[in-house]
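Problem 12. The chain below contains 126 residues. Write out its predicted structure in token notation.
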Amino acid sequence: MKLRIKGNSLRLRVSPSEMTLLLQTGRIEDAIHFGPGEGARLVYALEHRPALTAMDVRYEPNEITVVVSSQDAQNWAAGQDVGLYGASVSGQEPLELAVEKDFACLDKEDAQNADTFPNPKQGTVC
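Solution.
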């Protein structure tokens, strides 16, 4: 899973194998380590919950979790939509949230595009 933070927005990109795991287990996660200590890492996760009606984010020390409804996750996985989008109330302004399928890059080798969704622009001429 890839994490992108820019300003007051957060985006997760999910591979096909991660999508499968998310649907099977209800949660996927990864971490980035900023130093050697356990407290020097940030876990970022994606979960789905049956009763949820809107995308949300949960923040705890050293962990950020984006939560979507189970129905939205299933529809997204089975459909052609690129992602799920929403916003969560934060202190100053809404935190924009995006969870997207990780598409193959058109300018990368096949090995670098392993475990990605087929790019919908594949075969088009720029």
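Discussion. Strands lie at 2-6, 9-14, 27-33, 41-49, 56-60, 63-69, 83-88, 95-101. Students who got a different answer should revisit the alignment rule from Section 12.3.
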